Amino acid sequence: MTPDTRKWTHRQAGLPLFLALGLVLLLATPAFPVPQGGYAHPETLIQPEELKALVDRQAPGLRIIDVRHKAKYYLGHVPGALEVWRPDLDDHQSQGLIPSRAQVEALLGRLGVSGQDTLILYGDHYDHSRLWLVLAYYGFPLERLRLLDGGLEAWKAKGYPTQMTAPPVSRTRVKLPGASPFPKLVADLAAVKIASQAPGKVIVDVRPHRQYLGQQEKEGAARPGHIPGAVGLVWKEAVVAAGPYKSFFQPAVELKKIFRAQGATPDKDIYLYSHNGLSATLSLLGLYLAGYPLEKLHLYAGSWIEWSRSPEAAAMGNAAAAGPQPTGNPPKTGAREKRGKP
Questions:
Q1: pLDDT attached to residue 172
Q2: What are the distances in angstroms from CA 235 to CA 30, 195, 244, 339?
Q3: Could you give the CA distance from residue 287 to residue 216 in angstroms, rounded to a whole number?
């Protein structure tokens, strides 16, 4: 607070308490209020007003993709949006891993995506961030990948119309780059095992705290607990919890504060996992927005489902002590398992 501000406050000492509290809250407003969040990569997000302008003028080369359950899609979506859901983003051969390049190319072809289109993605919580990560991994240009900040609820909060029918689509043939520009964006169990024992690397478990502590076991996992040495940070902390900007990404200063408090600083390699690899993508995207190098961010695709079925140790509570080993012959890692919410 500046000296001038303090003098003004003192002169207003007789103000009712509720007005004084209101002033304090106003002065405590973050330097970068959402949606002007001070991001290192603001081009990754698009605000509802910006998207509405593009829709109204029928901007060419625009593909809006609704990554929600089909039932929700047909109850109302952004006009012109196309529907994609979780089965489209699973590897058809190994559950829990990202889809193959050929599978992603086929999906983009079904959506009628051309080589120069810009994709606008949105979803309920984190499925759209998984699609963003998959496309980024296979080399779709990042400058043509954008997420609708706040999702469909932010769109509707502005009073913008929704549509209940799917638009016509002409199939295309899409060819993604041969080599991934970010080959380490997706990590496997072996890489995470090494990271758990190496300096300069941080493993972040973004599941609900009860799952992280081993107090709750979710369907699909073979046992409770977390990867030894992993820190717990719930994925929802990356977005605003309530108020007019509910479900918008937190400002960059808040994202940095949240992750740095757990030792996840930009100079370190950060491995993120959840129950099945879905919600971890939202946390990873938040770190990218905050300025963490994408080359140092890694999604453990198999996540806790795969680790819990492996012979590797599990930790309970907040300690890094090894927990119980799986008994008998654990299922093969990557075995098919119905996805639920992380």
A1: 96
A2: 21, 21, 20, 17
A3: 27
Please choose, from the candidates 54, 63, 102, the residue with its C-alpha nearest in 3D space to the C-alpha of residue 81: 63
Residue 20 has pLDDT above 80, yes or no: no
| Residues whose CB is less than 8 angstroms from the CB of residue 147 and which lie 6 or more positions away in sequence, other chains included | 44, 45, 46, 120, 121, 122, 128, 129, 132, 285
Instruction: Locate 339 and state its tokens.
Output: 């996805």
Q: Whose structure tokens read 């309530």?
A: 242
Q: What is the CATH number of the domain that holds 305?
A: 3.40.250.10
Exposed e or buried b per residue across 15-40, where buried means at least 16 C-beta atoms within 10 angstroms of its C-beta = eeeeeeeeeeeeeeeeeeebbebbbe
Question: What average pLDDT does the structure give for the chain?
Answer: 85
Task: Note whether residue 129 is domain-resident.
Answer: yes
Tokens of 243: 């108020």
* More confident: 31 or 302: 302
| Same domain assignment for residues 137 and 228 | no
**Does residue 34 fall inside a structural domain?**
no
Per residue in 117-132, pLDDT tens? 999 999 998 999 999 9
β-partners of residue 77 are: 163
pLDDT tens for 90-99 read: 886 765 588 9
Domain end among 141, 157, 173: 157
d(CA 108, CA 89) in angstroms, rounded, equals: 11
Taking CA atoms, 246 is separated from 65, 234, 243, 259, in Å, by 21, 16, 5, 20
Which structure tokens are listed for 198?
């190496």
Other beta carbons within 10 angstroms of residue 53's beta carbon come to 11
Phi and psi dihedrals of 88, rounded to 5?
-70, -20
Structural domain for 279, as ranges: 186-309
Nearest to 212 by CA among 241, 185, 235: 235
Is residue 108 within 8 A of residue 170, CB to CB? The reply is no
Across residues 97-126, what is the average pLDDT? 93
In the predicted model, what is the mean pLDDT of residues 40-51? 96
Say if residues 296 and 270 touch (Cβ distance below 8 Å). Answer: yes
